[in-house]
Amino acid sequence: MRVRDAKAADWPLIWPFLHRICAEGETFGYPVDIPEESARTAWMLAPPGRTVVAADSSGAVLGTAKMNPNQMGNAAHVASASFMVDPGHAGRGVGRALCEEALRWAGAAGYRGMQFNAVVASNTPAVRLYRSLGFEVIGTVPEGFRHPRLGYVGLHVMYRRL
């Protein structure tokens, strides 16, 4: 598996699983019926942001990440990132590779920390992964996410110093 910068030609490979993850409505705060063009605009970032893909040796896209300043102006020294792994490739280290690349990128770019603003508390694989990489839950918005099966669940804010 190789993590590399995303190209416009990767979008048709990203969209099917990004669309599926959004439509399932269990782990991401995007609208379940997000239009493709809105998703592309939100995901495929221009500098100072960055979008990457994890691809296998055949070129298949296994997952993707976007990285960006968490806020603007005097709060732009903290990075943020979002990750989506094709469900068909879950449990194979794709998310870890993407998160490690986001941390590497943020450190090299001079960010002082990385903050995840909205980690669904019931998304235990993501919470476990982020904790294993040094992130802490610094707060939880009670009932901040409306899960389609579980009802209202917490939404974690997670942080790690770089």
Structural descriptors:
globular; single chain; 162 residues; alpha+beta; 4 helices; seven-stranded mixed β-sheet; 28% helix
Summarize the structure.
The chain is an alpha+beta fold and 162 residues long.
What does it look like?
With 162 residues, the chain is an alpha+beta fold. The chain contains four helices and seven strands. A seven-stranded mixed sheet has the order 1-2-3-4-5-7-6. A hairpin with an 8-residue loop joins strand 3 and strand 4. The radius of gyration is 15 Å and the shape is globular.
Architecture blueprint of SSEs:
Layout lengths: L1 E4 L5 H14 L11 H8 L6 E6 L5 E9 L8 E8 L8 H15 L4 E8 L3 H9 L3 E12 L3 E11 L1
Parallel strand pairs: 4-5
Antiparallel strand pairs: 1-2, 2-3, 3-4, 5-7, 6-7
Question: Biggest sheet: strands side by side, in what order?
Answer: 1-2-3-4-5-7-6
Written as H for each helix and E for each strand, in order along the chain, the element string is: EHHEEEHEHEE
Helicity range: 25-40%
DSSP strand (E) fraction? 35-45%
Number of helices: 4
The whole-angstrom Rg is 15 Å
Note the overall shape: globular
Beta strand count: 7
Largest sheet: 7 strands, mixed
Ends: how far apart?
Answer: 25 Å
Low-pLDDT runs: none
How confident overall, as mean pLDDT?
Answer: 96
- The computed structural class is alpha+beta
